[in-house]
Amino acid sequence: MRKYINPILLVIVITFSCTSPEGGMSIAVSFASEASPESLDGRLILLLSTSDDREPRFQISDGLNTQLIFGQNVDQMAPGDEIIFDNSIFGYPYESLKDVPAGDYYVQALLHKYETFNLSTGHTVKLPMDDGEGQQWNRSPGNLLSDPVKVKIDPSGSETIRIQMNQVIPPIEPPEDTEWIKHIKMKSDLLTEFWGRDMYLGAHVLLPEGFDEHPEAKYPLMIFHGHFPYDFGGFRTIPPDPDLEPVYSERFDVEGYNIIQQQEAYEQYKKWISEDFPRFLIIEIQHPTPYYDDSYAVNSASQGPWGDALTYELIPYIEEKFRGQGQPWSRFLYGGSTGGWEALAVQVMYPDEYNGCFAACPDPIDFRAYCLTNIYEDKNAYYYESEHKRVLVPGRRNYLGHVNVSVRDYNYRELALGDKSRSGQQWDIWEATYSPQGENGYPVRLWDKYTGDINPVVAEYWKENYDLRYILERDWSTIGKKLEGKINIYCGDMDNYYLNNAVYLMEEFLESTTDPYYGGEVDYGDRAEHCWNGDQENPNHISRLRYNTMYVNKILKRIEESAPQDADLTSWRY
Predict the structure, then answer these.
(1) What average pLDDT does the segment 142-170 reach?
(2) Is 181-363+535-562 a domain of CATH 3.30.70?
(3) What is the mean predicted confidence (pLDDT) over 59-87?
């Protein structure tokens, strides 16, 4: 990060004036006409950091090293308008500026721009449209931004510090096609109708060895679900860069993890082109929404028909363009975490369209274990019920059980980033996907974002529409036969986010099914963290890099057992 102690810039950008309207110190933020000549809507974010290692916008997290963030909505903010941050504006990890310890801070302001959508439901909402970055507020093209400047913060003082946003985050260049990887983008009629403006779906397609030399071949399709991918990940046609400086991974306690990642990507390429490797199409989907970096791949009240758009628009389009088999027996779903939930949910909700899912470390698949909250019985998501004690519900642990984040921490950071489920973060996207649409057009809160008090009416809606274990149990008599042999779930028994608890509950149901027996697999990694995916031989930091090859043998076995008699099992086995 640059050292932003520039005396000329300080004179121009920061001035001091009278006492803030709320009393105490305040910070006034504006933007210059050269940054935008137009009035703008959005979330105005103020960032403070004691570290100059990086810009403050890149130092906000849920961990112990997070820096400070405060946020408020702006409507029709015009060039030169001053928006005041005072003690009344909510922040994280300090709720108010008055709680910030006095001292020197690097201060930065950012306007996360909102677009107005006229939904087919009749509602008008303001949300951030993705601009190729995968819904990342701190690097979304078009957002306004100030240079970080060093100031002295004294909450007990009466000064008003003034900051001006004078730059715009530039566009992101899309990835280019290669011999192996193709990038597609298609307009979705279903989503365009719902959102009231053109909406697009994208995908990165990995072509099989011999694709051009075998025009007669039609290929099975492997669909890798997960967070927004800038490009197809984990595939590299050249050995690791010999000049690459090794980088230590704190998460895995591994030195040179960047080199390991490149080596694994190269090994996947060598395996992909080997003579005995089966030929598949693999796709990674781009489906960011105005609420998150992906849609969760299902239809929902506030996000629209993403499940139908992916299953009935995108998948057939890819199969036609790249010679897929185009048949349900030839389509397989897999992924981890968000992608694990999506793989299982898509298989459950479209049982006739896919032939198997491999769901690793899935987001909560039984809302009796919504991480550590039972949304049907618990009254509050942030605190354990007690007459005399106030104990926070943990949000994240390591494999030894050490906790450094609470559920309240996660949600308070999101509340600073955006109200009405608009933070673009994990707990808000669950609401945006699972909740009914409110009278204002936004998702109805499962719980009060500040107090954590749970709304049982919303919990019941979640149960009937998105609790995958409950849906399977409720509907097994009609869909069980269609799902026989298709459900496979993997999770570490020390998942960082306690996701294994919901998997245990799902396994109890699946193993009790008899008509028919589910016929799949549930497996656990001993002391394995997020995102364990079924590999009992390699450590998590290795197995998580092998998603695109590790389920292939199980997929081939499934094809042999389930493909119809007239299925093409030969053209792609060259």
Answers:
(1) 95
(2) no
(3) 96
